[in-house]
Amino acid sequence: MAAAFYVCFLLWCFQINTAGAQLPPPHNLNVISMNTNYTLTWDWDQGQGSAESGAVNFTTHYVAKFMLKSKKKSPNWNIGCETTSDRSCDLTNKNLFYLGIYVFRVRASVNGTDSDWATKDFCPDEEAALGPPSKVALSPEGRNLDIVISDPLSSTNRSMREHHEDLYFQIRYWERSADGQALRGHSLSSKKRVVTLSNLQAWTWYCVSVQSRYDFYNKSSSFTPPTLHAD
Ligand SMILES: *[C@@H]1O[C@H](CO)[C@@H](O)[C@H](O)[C@H]1NC(C)=O
Ligand SMILES: *[C@@H]1O[C@H](CO)[C@@H](O)[C@H](O)[C@H]1NC(C)=O
Ligand SMILES: *[C@@H]1O[C@H](CO)[C@@H](O)[C@H](O)[C@H]1NC(C)=O
Ligand SMILES: *[C@@H]1O[C@H](CO)[C@@H](O)[C@H](O)[C@H]1NC(C)=O
Ligand SMILES: *[C@@H]1O[C@H](CO)[C@@H](O)[C@H](O)[C@H]1NC(C)=O
Predict the structure, then answer these.
(1) 210 pLDDT more than 90
(2) Cα 228 to ligand 2 centre (Å)
(3) Whose CA is nearest to atom 5 of ligand 5?
(4) Other Cβ atoms closer than 10 A to 226
(5) Chosen CATH of 24-127 out of 3.40.1110.10, 3.30.420.10, 2.60.40.10, 3.40.50.300
(6) Could you name the CATH architecture of 135-230?
(7) Model pTM?
(8) Which has more pLDDT, 78 or 142?
């Protein structure tokens, strides 16, 4: 009994001591995303001991989450960013699998001392923000007006439909007479890239703005800046 008490007491002291000397880990980890562009950001509070402000390095790692569950051995963490003083790491070019679940981790180092790792889970399919259409053009066809919409694009300029097959567009348009009167708003949704408004009024301005949407994970982009057509 007495021996057991002694061991516990020693461990307790040891933990307090190392905790006191430790560098604070980064906190507030967040992933800023747009389509397939992913940037991990974090905050870090300068510890009281490390006087030289700015003299801090951060290291970012990432790994597929299922690798951490493997009982065999410690996983091979991949390097995201090494020894940067920035409080962010752009992981866009790491070819993350869109349907994968990843764990990101980041630690601070000052003067050869490392902090603990701070971690953040991220699943692009579920969490990455969807961008607005990459382009909206208006093309008059007689009394009709074609709205020609280009899909939001990934960081390799491929359509985001490759990841979200059921992506669709929410289209808003406003009518306004040439004298500035009679503002009317309309709204419609479509999966198509060309949507035709028929029987347009003469001497009327049409203003069009489009949003991308994907309902499964309730994703909706910002609306594109209004595109104007004067009939
Ligand atoms: C990702 O987006 C950020 C913010 O818009 C940008 O600065 C960065 O260059 C983008 N990364 C790539 C690889 O395009
Ligand atoms: C960095 O380490 C050196 C040598 O151990 C020490 O003299 C110096 O005070 C340390 N600087 C800071 C900012 O902790
Ligand atoms: C940051 O990393 C560089 C390169 O490894 C190293 O020379 C420098 O001493 C590091 N700075 C700190 C504050 O640890
Ligand atoms: C994507 O397209 C834009 C505009 O056409 C171009 O500036 C950029 O270099 C392209 N990026 C890639 C990765 O192909
Ligand atoms: C879906 O997103 C919309 C707008 O962003 C929000 O108002 C709504 O509450 C969300 N619904 C769910 C089920 O998350």
Answers:
(1) yes
(2) 62
(3) 220
(4) 14
(5) 2.60.40.10
(6) Sandwich (2.60)
(7) 0.81
(8) 78
